[in-house]
Amino acid sequence: SGEQLPETWQIGVSRAMEIVPVGPLSAVQIAAARTWGDSVMIVQTFAGLVTGKVSARDLGGPVMVVAEASRQAQTGLANLLLFMAIISINLGIVNLLPIPVLDGGHLAFMAVEMLRGKPLPLRVREFALGVGMAVIGALMLFVVLHDLVRVVAG
What we know:
The protein is mainly alpha-helical.
């Protein structure tokens, strides 16, 4: 049949990619623009999760990441490397969230301490770290269980 499938996107990775040779300076410029665009997409997705415009059911955990990496590897090394880059950007952005156990949480503590002119009390920091661990643990449990349900459901 002469039908062409529409281009689809998943986690910012396209189904087909054209590789065009470019010089080193152009490669750096293209990589920077692509990284910025992917970062904006990831932040918009997080904002969508918070506002309810993106369903939490769309989140994927380690099982989904491995399955998608396998799928991308089958389409070629370039797609796999692009997928790995997007995962790295995603992890970097997640790490900057102001959750106490993450780097973003440490930055938030430092900002508060700078504004206060003195460190937060130890009990406050310990409580915040406990809440942060609970949030990260709950999120990990949610995405892994959701991944397993997806695998069992087929």
